[in-house]
């Protein structure tokens, strides 16, 4: 009996909390920007001592040319620390970095012409890549060229 009453009360609660509003909703802006405002690189490794993934962010000096949709980057491997030892630092190369982009609000970015995927360790040794940034409106698209001009270790 208690289960039946609980079930009925739950159904009534669900019905009363459901909204059917379909008119007079605020129109949200549709963003038309397809820009990249920052590019970052990081190195990841498994720390067997603590059974955990570790991450160190590379120093990156970006020159962003919004007229030509081009970013030129100088990547610097950081100095050693207690955690980021010389042994681990020696393993850092352009072939095992993960990259991430800061892009316009609600935009998306995807690699083109065989460029490495973003967010996972990939090979950036080719030093020149292209990514297509699509604005939130789904219409505006810009192809961005990324050039790694220097890798300092």
Task: Please provide a written account of the structure.
It contains two helices and eight strands. The protein has 153 residues and is mainly beta. The longest helix is centred in the first third of the chain and has 15 residues, at 2-16. The mean pLDDT is 91.
Structure summary:
This protein is mostly beta strands and 153 residues long. It has helices spanning 2-16, 86-89, and strands at 36-47, 52-57, 59-65, 70-76, 98-103, 108-112, 128-134, 141-152. Helices cover 12% and strands 41% of the residues.
Distance between the termini: 73 Å
Low-confidence stretches: none
The proportion of residues in beta strands is 35-45%
Reported for the largest beta sheet, the result is: 5 strands, mixed
Q: Helix fraction?
A: 10-25%
What is the spatial order of strands in the main beta sheet?
3-4-8-7-6
Radius of gyration: 24 Å
Please state the overall shape, judged from the principal axes of the Cα atoms. Answer: flat
The count of DSSP E runs of length 2 or more, i.e. the number of strands, is 8
What is the typical, i.e. mean, pLDDT?
Answer: 91
The number of helices is 2
SSE series: HEEEEHEEEE
